[in-house]
Design goal:
With 53 residues, this protein is mainly β. The chain is 0% helix and 26% strand.
Length: 53
């Protein structure tokens, strides 16, 4: 897992608790079309989930 403190954000982001899934505790959410994020990690892969619903 990547700690949120390792993520640099631009624009408006909100950290929220996710109550629907036991395997997801926190999430970052934005509605700002110009928002961005960046991070570095060491490993073989990384997954990011997008929810447009």
């Amino acid at each position: 897992m990547l700690d949120f403190t390792a993520i640099s954000t631009t624009g408006r982001w909100v950290e929220q608790r996710w109550h629907s899934y036991e395997w997801v505790d926190l999430m970052l959410e934005t509605t700002d079309m110009s928002a961005g994020l960046s991070f570095e990690f060491e490993g073989h892969g990384f997954a990011i989930a997008f929810d447009y619903g």
